[in-house]
Write a structure and sequence with these properties.
This protein has 72 residues and is mostly helical. The chain contains 3 helices and no strands.
């Protein structure tokens, strides 16, 4: 709330609704956030694959992933 304001403010739940609405709008209209979300998904998948690989293969996987990953 804004100190000194006597107006009604949206509830906590409604505020999160506005936040999700803004996020959805950004994903639909902005190219850069799509690229960032794709990079995030790739990083999560690579982390999961690395966690399930045996120790000997991990170093090769990390080296290949760091060489092939695009630099933004």
């Amino acid at each position: 709330m804004i100190p000194g304001s006597k107006e009604n403010h949206p509830s906590f739940r409604k505020s999160f609704g506005f936040a999700f609405q803004g996020f959805r709008f950004a994903v639909m209209s902005e190219r850069n956030i799509k690229v960032m979300l794709a990079g995030f998904a790739l990083a999560v998948v690579m982390g999961l694959v690395q966690a399930w690989m045996p120790c000997a293969g991990r170093s090769c996987f990390c080296a290949a992933a760091s060489c092939c990953a695009p630099s933004f």
